[in-house]
Write a structure and sequence with these properties.
The structure is a homodimer.
Chain A (H helix, E strand, L loop, with lengths): L1 E2 L2 H15 L8 H8 L3 H13 L3 E4 L5 E4 L8 H8 L22 H18 L3 H12 L25
Helix pairs in contact in A: 1-2, 1-4, 1-6, 4-5
The structure holds a DNA duplex.
Chain lengths: ~160, ~160
DNA sequence: TTAATCCCTAGTAATTTACTATAGTATAGA
DNA sequence: TCTATACTATAGTAAATTACTAGGGATTAA
């Protein structure tokens, strides 16, 4: 069907990790990388647009890190995905009918526009506060850095590259 | 955000073209290619899975072609996209939690599952009969092969490869 | 001063996408 | 029967995208 990039997925987890530590000072990428099992180098890329969009801010130097600029309940997954996938549409013509001569009388375009709206609405229906609560429920505990990788290091979404 | 492939988009138009000619005998790919401005070779690829899925059937030889096996009102866009993108998920773990160790306590996964459902629901809410009627409304006419390419040949979705 | 951080610009291998090519097989109609 | 018109099947491939990785530089707490 349609695929969601690791950029959006890892980015969503990155922000969720920061939401988990909201109000506790800056969080280091190295810690997030360890907890979320994503390389620091990759996280560094995700953090740039999030900062430019004003969703997070950074503290440089020792004991530095990143923090959310607002409460988790004020940030939706849709906002984060939107920032990370800026300018990407489901179909080129959905945002600009001028891109396709067919647009004015294209019935399929109406479908794509509607699908895009559905995706956006769904993503916007989840705030990071919601995600924190869902995570707590799923864990059954009080939720604090509960997720730990296996001792062999193999972990989450490890089959990203290999399997079709 | 997430992108929809040309496979799904052209395939949707391919079936819509066949729906437009439903009950009028087999339609040749060469004609669809001309009307929809997609190469015959590419259409040939799209037609294979649709035939295997039983949505269309073929007639070989001169005056042959393809036809829908059922009325346009019985086929949804979702069904066609599903056939063309078989085995593709929004995120690897949505169909099979086993693919990711994190799945049992992953809040973000719940979001992806919900988004996928929203996409599917929306795509399934449109039948080809709906699309035919939408097209008629958009055209303002009685709708029969009304869409013609420009004399210079440049046409629909021409910026597929070039622009970002 | 030093080590821990974030910051910045590239680079790149693997994969996927969006096609194209070549060589058929089946059939209607002359 | 011949032939042009279709569909059928299997490869191949250039371009684009994805998912990273590398190698430094700038900032700051201790």
């Amino acid at each position: 069907m349609v695929k969601m990039s690791t950029k959006s997925r890892y980015g969503t987890r990155l922000v969720l990790d920061m939401a988990r530590h909201y109000g506790q000072g800056p969080v280091q990428l190295a810690d997030i990388a360890r907890r979320q099992q994503v390389s620091v180098k990759y996280l560094e890329q995700l953090v740039i647009p999030l900062k430019l969009a004003g969703l997070i801010e950074s503290v440089r130097g020792v004991k530095g890190g990143y923090l959310l600029t607002m409460e988790p309940r004020l940030i939706t997954v849709g906002r984060v995905v939107d920032v990370l996938e800026r300018g990407q549409n489901l179909v080129p013509c959905t945002d600009d009918p001028e891109k396709c001569r067919r647009a004015p009388f294209c019935a399929t375009r109406c479908v794509w526009v509607d699908v895009e709206r559905a995706i956006r609405d769904t993503l916007d229906s989840y705030t990071y506060q919601d995600l924190l609560e869902m995570e707590d429920t799923l864990m059954g505990g009080k939720g604090e850095d509960h997720v730990q990788p296996d001792r062999d290091g193999s972990f989450y979404e490890s089959e990203e590259r290999g399997s079709a």
